[in-house]
Design goal:
heterodimer, A: 117 residues, alpha+beta, 4-stranded antiparallel sheet, two-stranded antiparallel ribbon, 3 helices, 35% strand, elongated, B: 429 residues, mainly alpha, 15 helices
């Protein structure tokens, strides 16, 4: 069981969601974050003030998956978020000690497997 | 409109105020449009309206006014008033206000019409080609249609009644918007993702400002403080109110809820509907027009998003269609006893409806064709739209280097007007 965290461009979010859906990854959280990963600075001007925007808007996805799903989740993120330009983002995979579904108390793999309707 | 040799103080006072009211409609429209797009395109969308204030005004002073209102042939005016030649304090023929004021009032019409067309191409058209297009469109399309309807052109000479601009402003912008949307093409995400209005409060406030300005737009189109102005002013209150009510009803029928964006749209549709008819029909018929105008515009707004035509902010439905409805409706119910000019079909004058129908065919045909050709030619000289990548980033950052909702987090000061040289690291989170 792993926690996959991916930081992607906001404009690629819809492509990522589509790719995850195709890979059968259904449970995830996302949040807007600001970050910097070596891309070129953007310059903005407000009246006489010129500023360099060091941090760019990014979106962070967090997905807890069972072992079989790790590679397909990573592939989905890469497929959905890649443009080929600097600033496409990163994926971090870390081991997950425990997962609990609050509603039922199920743990681990069954907690991260979507309920089949 | 009674020809008078001298300037009337009362008429001039009202027309000065009315002109300022009409000018307010352009930033009002900018706010309305800005609320309807995604947050990353807020400034660019608003700036297209602001650009009209610059470009259309200058073009209007240079040649636009002359081509619309100088004596010429039936199709276009002459160049006798180019660069404001002979436009001064003497009253404009047929009015009792100085020609300079008449020029300003008509300039405000041209500006808001140019801004209206931008609604078709927001979120993807580059800003520079938009400036060039706006400049050329204000002359090649707006001035010509204004000449037809107001400046002694063939429609006016034939007998078409158009009180405040159903031909040049509403049908002119609406059908040009359709052509522009077809030439520029759909946004890359159109039909694939939900593209939602980012601030409905802007939309409502913008619609409110437009309605407020419309009292000058319609109320000033009698160029006096006389009966037709008072009638148009009254009808500008009554018609949109009826459109709103009917729109609520249509919303309820279709989705069991009354929507805010729908309400803002209804206000525009009502104001547009009464624009050509304002000073020509009775208040009772104006209320009926409000109800009738809602139907075709509502139908287009429901139908259009199911097509591949990304006429983004529905200028065709809200302006083109509602303007056409108003132009035709007036042909049925104009009343000599109210307007002192002409009766419509219901009062025994079929001739009037005939000329309204001719205007309803000719204006859309010219606006669509001229805009289509103009943009196709412009595309040969410069790329009209942003790249997919730029579209994804948002037009605010790409075209203007600004954001509507900048947080300032992570911004590093590069230079200030105070003359600090070199990077000064501040505001680091």
């Amino acid at each position: 069981m792993k926690l996959v965290t991916a930081i992607v461009r906001p404009e690629k979010v819809n492509d990522v969601l589509e790719a995850l859906y195709r890979a059968d990854v259904r449970g995830m959280s996302m949040s807007r974050v600001q970050g910097h990963g070596g891309e070129l600075d953007r310059v903005e001007t407000y009246r006489g003030t010129t500023v360099k925007m060091e941090l760019s808007e990014k979106v962070r996805f967090e997905v807890a998956v069972s072992g079989d799903f790790v590679q397909s989740t990573i592939d989905a993120f890469c497929a959905g978020a890649r443009t080929g330009e600097v600033g496409d983002g990163k994926i971090f995979v870390v081991p997950l000690e425990q997962a609990v579904r609050i509603r039922t108390g199920e743990t681990d793999a069954s907690a991260v497997t979507p309920v089949k309707k | 409109m009674i020809a008078s040799a001298s300037v009337s103080a009362g008429d001039t006072a009202w027309m000065l105020a009315a002109t300022a009211l009409v000018l307010l409609m352009t930033p009002g429209l900018g706010l309305f449009y800005a609320g309807l797009v995604r947050s990353k395109n807020t400034l660019n969308t608003f700036m297209m309206s602001i650009a009209a204030l610059a470009v259309a005004t200058v073009m209007w002073a240079a040649v636009g006014y002359s081509l619309a209102f100088d004596h010429g042939n039936g199709f276009v005016g002459g160049l006798g008033h180019a660069f404001l030649k002979d436009v001064a304090f003497a009253p404009r023929a047929g009015t009792s206000i100085p020609q300079l004021l008449f020029f300003c009032f008509q300039a405000a019409f041209c500006i808001v019409t140019v801004a209206l067309v931008s609604g078709a191409v927001v979120e993807r058209m580059r800003f520079l080609p938009m400036l060039v297009f706006s400049a050329l469109w204000s002359v090649l399309v707006y001035s010509v249609l204004a000449h037809w309807a107001f400046g002694g052109g063939w429609l006016q000479a034939g007998g078409t009644l158009d009180f405040a601009g159903g031909v040049p402003v509403e049908m002119g912008s609406g059908f040009s918007a359709l052509a522009a949307a077809l030439v520029i093409g759909a946004r890359k995400d159109y039909g694939r993702q939900a593209l939602l209005p980012h601030n409905s409060v802007y939309v409502l406030l913008g619609a409110g400002l437009l309605w407020f300005g419309w009292f000058g737009f319609n109320g000033g189109s009698g160029f006096s403080t006389g009966h037709s102005s008072v009638l148009a002013f009254t009808n500008t209150l009554l018609t949109p109110a009826c459109t709103l009510l009917v729109w609520f009803g249509l919303d309820l029928l279709r989705q069991k809820r009354v929507t805010a964006i729908g309400a803002a749209t209804a206000i525009i549709v009502g104001c547009v509907g009464i624009t050509p008819a304002g000073g020509y029909i009775s208040p009772g018929w104006a209320m009926a027009l409000g109800a009738v105008a809602a139907l075709p515009s509502y139908a287009i707004i429901v139908w259009r998003p199911r097509t591949r035509i990304d006429e983004t902010l529905d200028v065709l439905a809200a302006h083109g269609m509602a303007g056409l409805t108003g132009i035709l409706f007036l042909g049925f119910v104009a009343q000599l006893s109210w307007n002192g000019v002409s009766d419509g079909l219901l009062y025994g004058n079929a001739h009037q409806l005939g000329w309204q129908a001719i205007a309803g065919l000719a204006a859309p045909a010219y606006a669509f064709t001229a805009t289509f050709v103009l943009l196709r030619l412009l595309a040969l000289v410069m790329p009209l739209r942003a790249t997919e990548h730029e579209e994804a980033l948002g037009m605010d950052v790409v075209q203007h280097g600004e954001q509507a909702y900048a947080s300032g987090e992570g911004a590093i000061l590069v230079s200030t007007e105070a003359g600090l040289d070199g990077p000064v690291a501040v505001a680091q989170p």
